[in-house]
Amino acid sequence: MNKLILIIFTIAVIAQLTGIVLLFINAKLALQVFLYYVAAIILLVPLLIIKKRKTKEEDPNDYRDY
User: What residue intervals traverse the membrane (predicted)?
Assistant: First the structure.
């Protein structure tokens, strides 16, 4: 799960930076790249929510500081 989140986050960052650069070169292509960025963010949000729920469930059973 962590690897998937890292991959999607990396794709989102690369798409955002590429979209900004392409705004000066080709606006139509930049819009397409920004759509990929939005899609990556939409995929990332539910994964982060699931991860937060899992860590919340595991916290009461954490006895590392016992």
Answer: 29-50
